[in-house]
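Posting this for the archive.
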Amino acid sequence: MKKFLFILLIGVVGGSMGNTSSEKKAVFAGGCFWCMQPVFDQKSGVVSTAVGYTGGKKENPTYEEVSTGKTGHIEAIEVTYDPSKVTYADLIETYWRTIDPTDQGGQFSDRGTQYKTAIFYRDEEEKRIALESKEKLAKSGMFKRPIATEIIEASPFYPAEGYHQKYYLKNFDHYERYKVGSGRAGFITRMWGKEKEVGK
């Protein structure tokens, strides 16, 4: 009986670990992280998302610290996805459609290095895919200015405070006013067409 239970337990644990190991993570920076989350939450193949901070040296920085622009961190989103349902290249294509990749000083009304755009790669294959996608976008002729988005080796990602997570759901009216007022919504519509409505 004990041997049977032990084998059963190993089977359950092994199965769980297998499911977890099949998932991958991708990290993107695109200005205010509130505006990044709904786009990826709606993406087929995405398991979960979290907004936070990366690129700096201080562990577990706070929003107030990162907002000063002095910690070296960048507001970003960590996307957990199922590679059997969506590819890393597909996620990058979605990413381009959420930002102004030509802006070197931040994004829209948010200025400073903490709001710059970047793709964080975890291995050489991701780096290659990101660079090729960036080059393809540059050659597309969509933008008159050079593509400023950086391709950076990944560093520790620190989730932001709870009230920032899924902000577009918790404070929808304020989120919508911010997105329109910052200029992001209008830019995306001009460049890519009308966005899919949140929750649709």
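Helices lie at 2-21, 37-41, 63-67, 88-96, 124-139, 167-170, 172-181, 184-192. The chain has one domain: 23-192.
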